[in-house]
Amino acid sequence: MFPTGKEDPFLIFAEWFDEAKKVDIYEPTAVTLATADDKGRPSCRIVLLKEFDKRGFVYFTNKKSRKGDEVNKNSHAALCFYWDELRRQVRISGKVEEISEHESDAYFASRKRGSQIGAWASMQSQKLDKYSTLEKRVKEFEKEFGKGPIMRPPHWGGFRVVPKEIEFWQLIDHRLHKRILYERKGKKWESKLLYP
């Protein structure tokens, strides 16, 4: 169903997201995250959406990575989901904020042990002389933690994109696509149709 403009955009997203998880999409949580540095130079990459609610859309990363550094200097960001099998796209833009330490701890504890070790071993976005150096760091951290619990690294955590705009796009033949944009105005959302 394409939105009419009267619905809550978070409820529409939840419906579309549920539909994406039910069809044969390899990774329906994959979303392009676009950030920019303090000079406005953009960069983008794929991250995984780990949770969302009316506060916004959450992903996790090394805070010292390029994307972590960029949102620290320029808190504006955009997300773009594209589910080809459904011929749908959702574009989200807004400000980025760090989630609470408690929320980051809870998610980190739910990760597979290998991914927890990887968060310690990888100096994300930094120069790597050879891949074997990373493998060596993984073994060092495996030895350090042994079979005990692995705490979350202080440089790793979650970020929430708090949307100012959410656009829903549906492919229609002859490039006559349907588009509707929701814009946050205070505590309310206003909508408008857009030409394709």
CATH topology: Pnp Oxidase, Chain A
- On the 0 to 100 scale, the average pLDDT is 96
Strand proportion, as a percent range, falls in: 35-45%
- CATH homologous superfamily designation: Electron Transport, Fmn-binding Protein, Chain A
> How is the quaternary structure best described?
single chain
**Outline:** elongated
How would a textbook summarize the main sheet? 9 strands, antiparallel
How many H/I helical runs?
A: 5
SSE order? HEEEEHEEHHHEEE
Q: What is the CATH first-level class name?
A: Mainly Beta
Q: Quick one: how many beta strands?
A: 9
Number of domains: 1
Task: Give a description of the structure.
The structure is a single chain. This protein has about 200 residues and is of the alpha+beta class. The chain has one domain: Pnp Oxidase, Chain A (Roll). The protein is built from 5 helices and 9 strands; from the N terminus they run H-E-E-E-E-H-E-E-H-H-H-E-E-E. The chain has helices at about 10-20, 65-75, 100-110, 115-120, 130-145; strands at about 30-35, 40-50, 50-55, 55-60, 75-85, 90-100, 155-170, 180-185, 190-195. Strands 1, 2, 3, 4, 5, 6, 7, 8 and 9 form a 9-stranded antiparallel sheet that branches. Strand 3 (about 50-55) and strand 4 (about 55-60) form a beta hairpin. Helix 4 (about 115-120) packs across helix 5. The two termini are about 20 Å apart. The relative contact order is 0.18. The mean pLDDT is about 95.
